[in-house]
Amino acid sequence: MPRILIVDDDPEIRETMASLIRRQKMEYDAVSDVADTRRQIQDETYDVVLLDVRLPDGNGLDLLPEIKQLPNAPEVVILTGRGDPDGAELAIQGGVWDYLVKPCSIKQISLSLNRALKYHSQKEKGGDLKALDLSGVVGQGAAIRACFDTVAQAASTDSSLLITGETGAGKELFARTVHANSRRADKPFVVVDCASLTDTLVESTLFGHKKGSFTGAVADRTGLVELADTGVLFLDEVGELPLTIQKALLRVLQERRFRPVGATREVTSDFRLISATNRDLEAMVHAGEFRNDLFYRLKTIPLHIPPLRERKEDIKPLAMHFVNRLCERYGTPLKGVGADFFDVLNAYAWPGNVRELANILEQAFVTADRDKTLYAMHLPPALRIAVTKAQIMTSRTGEEQAPEPEVAASSPVPTTAPAAAPLPDGPLPSFKDFKAEAEAAYLDRLAEETDGDVPLMLDRSGLSRSHLYALLKKYSISV
Q1: Which residues, 6 or more positions from 359, have their beta carbon under 8 angstroms from its beta carbon?
Q2: Which of 124, 176, 202, 245 could lock onto 197 through a cystine, CB 3.0 to 4.6 A?
């Protein structure tokens, strides 16, 4: 029998949903906050979670990564009284089944619930999925684990895959992981470095040529597209492809046929296309720098690799992976790692992402020489200087402190409202504690005055959306 979890702080909504579920002869539990929801999903198994966003002790959307990591994860239907476009985007990106805004009809809720149940049942009947081979892929955080779901999906098909992410984030590693888990795993994986292709040689490189077809063609040459037959053609940095070749490539993708330079007959190639880029192809399309029709051919399955600075929880396991691999390569005993070493690594912004982390760790490994433990002092001075300067500038400018609300010149300052964080009569607290109290008090009042209206809160505070959400989560303030 299907089992539903109702999460809503409004007792009338909970009872309405419970009545709907009872009429359909299904089982249910009902809770009113984030903490109870966490306990329920750990103790019980559910098919669908009806989830409110604004809860007394936090934001319901923060539960999505935890729900999605559950064995046989339930489908999630968002049911919220305050629709927020950005919240809807976050929810859909988090894999929810539906996003409904109150008030909505019982019929609409029932329809969404039953569709989610049908989908969940079909997934269960589909049987166990083949375990992914994630050799070389290191990560434990929710952001990178979400990528694993897309890897599993992409590995089960031959559809075109577009991997996006910053330089050094691991795009080629993920491309090879998809290939290793696909039915073409024992077939060629042919890499095309689009950034190194020149306008004069790109056709010859991709499609091959016949002897004598142009000056310098002293022998027949098989193109990379043909070499990828039965396997994968990986277009690395596809955003660098010249417009002149994009049209020709589009025809190859449509028909899997091409003509080598100087040839009279066409050649076929049954390849699976995987592309990667660190550029915004959609913006390039709008700017006329990339063909719209080619863009949509490439992104049948999109996979975005988050930068390392957005998944700091993966820095430690990645660092240990690279250090252990270095010890194995050089035949040295495994080295320990000091806490201050990770403190510095976590404070750095990592513009070069995982590739930069690997290089930095090798430098530290060489510097440590025979030392049994890696400490912060072994890290390159340039990195330590960058981290120290950033910390000093942050403490000076107070970048993390929320700005005070602006008061119009014509508006009298309320005389009855207390200060955001009055100075205590006794000994002064530390500046860090005082600043935290001031931030929390400011955000509480901001949420109260705007009734939790996020766009209005952004307008009043002058904060960016990401900064506001980070502060609200930091101080467990529900909006």
Answers
A1: 352
A2: 202
| DSSP label of 95 | T
Nearest to 275 by CA among 246, 309, 306, 318: 246
**CATH number of this structure's domain 142-306, picked from the four choices 3.40.30.10, 3.40.50.300, 1.10.10.60, 3.40.720.10:** 3.40.50.300
Dihedral of CA 428/431/437/438: which sign? positive
CATH 3.40.50.2300 for domain 3-125: yes
3-state secondary structure of 209: strand
Q: Where do we find the tokens 């597209």?
A: 225
Backbone angles phi, psi at 258, to 5 degrees: -160, 165
Sign of the Cα torsion 313, 314, 320, 323 reads: negative
Rg (CA), the chain: 28
Q: Can you spell out the DSSP letters for 130-199?
A: PPP--TT----SHHHHHHHHHHHHHHTS---EEEE--TTS-HHHHHHHHHHTSTTTTS-EEEEEGGG--T
pTM of the model: 0.67
Average pLDDT, rounded, for the chain:
86
Domain 310-397 falls under CATH 1.20.1300.10? no
Tens digits of residue pLDDT in 292-303: 999 999 999 999
The beta-strand segments (E) located in 72-133 are: 75-80, 98-101
pLDDT for residue 431 = 72
With vertex at residue 275, the alpha carbon angle to CA 271 and CA 277, rounded to the nearest 5 degrees, is 165
pLDDT value at residue 406: 43
Give the separation between CA 100 and CA 8, rounded to whole angstroms.
13
For the chain, which residues make up each domain, given as ranges?
A: 3-125, 142-306, 310-397, 431-474
Q: How many residues are present in the chain?
A: 479
Query: Is the CB of residue 304 less than 8 Å from the CB of residue 165?
Result: yes
pLDDT tens digits, 46-65: 999 999 988 998 888 889 88
Please tell me if the domain spanning 3-125 has the same topology as the one spanning 142-306.
yes
**Segment 417-421 mean pLDDT:** 42
What whole-number distance in Å separates Cα of residue 107 and Cα of residue 222?
61
CA distance 107 to 169: 45
